[in-house]
Design the sequence.
């Protein structure tokens, strides 16, 4: 049976060949569970010969202790991978234990699969069968292939809207999904929320586990995870607003414990490799993922190693501190890793998957300049060094989240010099829900102050891209509303970047 790219249907156990899930014999706990797959399934970090499979068991996602009403013992989770959606051609199968100390999450790192191939996977616990997921491996090294469809998103506040944009993203059948941060928000619920946020502001491990579980209980988010492998990086709200390395937003002697708890819960709830497993307050999240020779994704961490924001954070006018050449947003080690990777790259497209606005964005009308100190504008020397590195590759692309609006930008080698050469393009995705429905403000003042910014849109949504050997096409997908469910998506603008030409061409 040929593989397809259509949605995988979850049918009865018999229709899916449940008996084929007979893995090595294991004792079955005497206590029967209710459905433990309420948080769905996911895959991530694909390579040419493998991918990570993930699930987390929870009978009750909203159990206040964050443990999903699961028994306090390890449970065997059977898993299976096939080349067809009915599992007639199984290529891998096994058993992994979901343990209470990891909130009954499992991470299965597959290897030995065929490059550039679509696979289907599922899990079983006792008589319960998960839905079926679709994933794929990256093309073989040196292979350009016929193209890559990739969608990316950020900033999903559960209380501020419905996750319909994730459903629309899933309907685009991407090969790969990037999530660029603010996957969940730390805040307690508020009166204006359209959906109830369970639990207090997240500070403890139980709090973060509960918050992730509530998000994963959303059917639209689960669907986006189910249809394609993800590459994820966190931003600030996975811990707390605008944290910078060991500096919290407000003085807090308990911040190291809060950071460690947030990192552990993040790992437990994401399809990450064991290399990303946190060690206390440290978590190695920056990494490169190659999609054949078509694209290399350099996934960055702009929170864990940065200097504190300049001039007291926020948007500041004429802040001289931001120009200090010693200031860094990536840390020295990550910067060396990135620049070395760019120098060695032979990819058609080198893509930075990262969190905060990269190109200069003067937010103040007139002669005086006002910049967000939380973005790369607050770390100008860092940006100049990375921009120079992007100028040495064939095609440099920056993907960004954080700001709850769509933007398109041309990145200059030095933004303080108007005649500086272009080195890359930047695509900034709006939020999934954060900020509510949005409006039709054209942001004319900011666009006028920044001629290298070519587009802005204040609606919710995501960006769909198509990479080929000759061009990158980016569709800015928007929804008219998110405070109620069910909106359809439309394309507000499309830009094309041609091979070896770091300029934006609006279609």
Sequence:
């Amino acid at each position: 049976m040929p593989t397809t790219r259509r949605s995988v249907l979850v049918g009865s156990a018999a229709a899916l060949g449940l008996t084929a899930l007979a893995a090595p014999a294991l004792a079955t706990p005497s206590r029967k569970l209710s459905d433990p797959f309420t948080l769905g399934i996911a895959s991530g970090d694909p390579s040419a010969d493998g991918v990570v499979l993930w699930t987390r068991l929870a009978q009750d996602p909203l159990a206040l202790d964050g443990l999903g009403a699961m028994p306090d013992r390890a449970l065997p989770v059977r898993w299976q991978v096939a080349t067809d959606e009915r599992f007639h051609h199984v290529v891998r199968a096994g058993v992994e234990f979901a343990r209470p100390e990891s909130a009954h999450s499992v991470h299965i790192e597959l290897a030995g699969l065929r490059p550039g191939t679509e696979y289907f996977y599922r899990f079983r616990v006792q008589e319960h069968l998960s839905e079926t997921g679709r994933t794929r491996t990256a093309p073989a090294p040196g292979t350009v292939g016929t193209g890559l469809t990739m969608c990316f998103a950020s900033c999903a506040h559960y209380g501020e809207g419905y996750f319909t944009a994730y459903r629309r993203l899933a309907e685009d059948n991407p090969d790969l999904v990037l999530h660029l941060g603010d996957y969940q928000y730390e805040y307690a619920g508020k009166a204006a929320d359209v959906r109830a946020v369970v639990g207090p502001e997240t500070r403890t491990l139980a709090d973060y586990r509960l918050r992730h579980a509530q998000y994963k209980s959303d059917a639209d988010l689960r669907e986006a995870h189910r249809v394609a492998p993800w590459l994820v990086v966190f931003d600030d709200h996975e811990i707390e607003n605008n944290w910078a390395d060991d500096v919290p937003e407000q003085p807090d002697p308990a911040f190291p414990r809060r950071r460690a708890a947030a990192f552990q819960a993040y790992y437990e709830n994401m399809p990450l490799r064991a290399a990303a497993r946190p060690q206390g307050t440290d978590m190695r999240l920056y990494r490169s993922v190659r999609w054949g020779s078509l694209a290399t994704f350099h996934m960055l961490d702009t929170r864990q190693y940065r200097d504190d924001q300049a001039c007291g954070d926020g948007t500041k006018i004429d802040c001289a501190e931001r120009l200090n050449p010693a200031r860094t947003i990536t840390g020295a080690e990550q910067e060396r890793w990135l620049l070395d990777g760019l120098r060695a790259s032979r990819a058609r497209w080198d893509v930075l998957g990262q969190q905060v606005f990269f190109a200069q964005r003067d937010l103040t009308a007139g002669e005086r300049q006002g910049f967000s100190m939380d973005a790369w504008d607050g770390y100008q020397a860092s940006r100049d060094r990375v921009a120079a590195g992007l100028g040495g590759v064939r095609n440099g692309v920056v993907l960004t989240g954080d700001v709850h609006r769509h933007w398109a930008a041309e990145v200059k080698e030095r933004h303080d010099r108007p005649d500086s050469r272009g080195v890359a393009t930047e695509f900034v995705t709006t939020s999934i829900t954060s900020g509510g429905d949005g409006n039709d403000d054209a942001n004319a003042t900011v666009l006028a102050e920044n001629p290298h910014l070519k587009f802005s849109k204040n609606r919710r949504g995501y960006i769909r891209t198509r990479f080929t050997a000759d061009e990158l096409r980016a569709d800015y997908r928007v929804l008219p509303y998110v405070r109620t469910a069910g909106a359809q998506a439309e394309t507000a603008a499309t830009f094309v970047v041609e091979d070896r030409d770091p300029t934006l061409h609006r279609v």
Q: What stands out?
A: The helical segments are 164-171, 205-216, 219-227, 255-268, 332-344, 380-390, 444-449. The first strand starts at residue 41 and ends at 44. The domain at 148-157+164-180+285-506 is CATH 3.60.21.70 (Purple Acid Phosphatase; chain A, domain 2). The radius of gyration is 22 Å.
